[in-house]
TrEMBL record:
Domain Peptidase S11 D-alanyl-D-alanine carboxypeptidase A N-terminal residue range list: 92-331
Ranges of compositional bias, category Low complexity: 1-11
Protein name: D-alanyl-D-alanine carboxypeptidase (Penicillin-binding protein 5/6)
Keyword Cell wall biogenesis/degradation: yes
Catalytic residues, chain numbering: 122, 125, 179
InterPro entries for this protein: Beta-lactam/transpept-like, Peptidase_S11, Peptidase_S11_N
Upper taxonomic lineage: Bacteria, Bacillati, Bacillota, Clostridia, Lachnospirales
Residue ranges of the region described as Disordered: 1-20
Superkingdom to which the source organism belongs: Bacteria
GO biological process: cell wall organization; peptidoglycan biosynthetic process; proteolysis; regulation of cell shape
Amino acid sequence: MENQNNNGNYDNRNRRKSKKKKRIYHKSVCIVLCLLIAIAALGIVNLIRSGKEAPIPEKKVTQNNESFSFGDSGQKETVSPILDTDNALSVNVTAANAIVINADTNATLYQKNGTDKISPASTAKMITALTVLDYCSPDDEIRAGAEIEMIHDDSSRAWLIKGDTLTVRQLLIALMLPSGNDAAYTLAVNTGKKIAGDKDLPDTQSIDVFMDKVNEKAKQLGAKNSNFVVPDGYDADGQYTTAYDLAIIAKACLDDPCISDIVATYSSYERWTNGREVTYKNTNELLNPGSKYYRPEVIGLKTGTSSRGGACIISAAVINGNTYICAVMGSTENDRFQDSVDIIDAIKLQ
């Protein structure tokens, strides 16, 4: 009996040990499984996070007065022009954006938000004029057609009529002096058809062809932070420029004998091919001898006004043998001229 009891006790101890080992084994398996589950969950979280777009450093874009879409230029922002500290102007400009350059030395004498993206308004007509003359002669004749109806109701006009026949030079006068949006579309449509080599190309497609060349021209000149959508500069999504780019374009206008002659004129009388007689006055009050803003040194260039761009003017003046270009953007009707006058007077005091 004693031997049986001893054997029974031994068997009981073995069974307890076996159960304990099983419990330890099961706990170990559970712990390993929990760790594996935790690792897998962490991996899934990281995978999800990695699948999200990495944050891109925010690019600062200053819009002028109103919020609107500039579109994607595909270009890096231009670096602010380096100020010529030895000849820097001491002047208080009220406009949102402004820049003054010496066109002979390319030195920047003043700048205020000069590389901010802004709406060009009718100052865009400078690049329209330059592009037209790349493909047309000033003496070429053009007949105004249905394209003059493509403009907005509140547009500035040269009051072209369907059937008017006039030269490219006369259309450029109608474009630059009274700032005719109808002249802009007549030039753009006809030049676009000439570029495409298709006289029957629809007007809208002709505009697209022309505007492609406008933007090519701007980039060639060095105005790399601009995108023009319509030939008259009327506010449009995806359309933008900078004061600095406009100064570059203005310099090219001064280098063109046809455009520089037109923009320096305050009043122009013309008799068109179809016999119509017109007289246009320049919207640039700096050229108006009867205006308090008149300055005899001024030789152009172009005004503009739009809801997004405000009142603007790109002016040029010859002072002490040097040509200066001043872009004043995002201002008011009168302040744009006053800012320009203050800049001219400051240059004279140097």
